[in-house]
Amino acid sequence: MSSARSASENQLTGPPSLGLGLNYTHLSNIKFDSSLNALDLNLKNNSFGFAAQIGADIEIAKNLVLSIDIKRVQIKTTVSSAGKDIGEFKVDPLLVGVGLGMRF
Q1: In degrees, to the nearest 5, what angle opens at C-alpha 97 toward C-alphas 21 and 31?
Q2: Whole-prediction pTM value?
Q3: What pLDDT score was predicted for residue 2?
């Protein structure tokens, strides 16, 4: 007896999920191009921002799920030159995740 499923038999293991929250990012190993050394640039290492997510788990076999999610996060930190704040650095990435999970 085979337990393999066709693609049409795969199903969501629950309702899709939506999430809103906060994002904390720790920036490390910050390096600027050596041509900018004279500016003595630096970034603050910590950033807090909003985060949003949508995702779903799809059962592909007994106790095995394919997890898919899309996240949008805000990352913003202060740029300084020679110890004086000169502006902000903003990044708003769209993150796509796909993973395999096992339910116990």
Answers
A1: 80
A2: 0.68
A3: 45
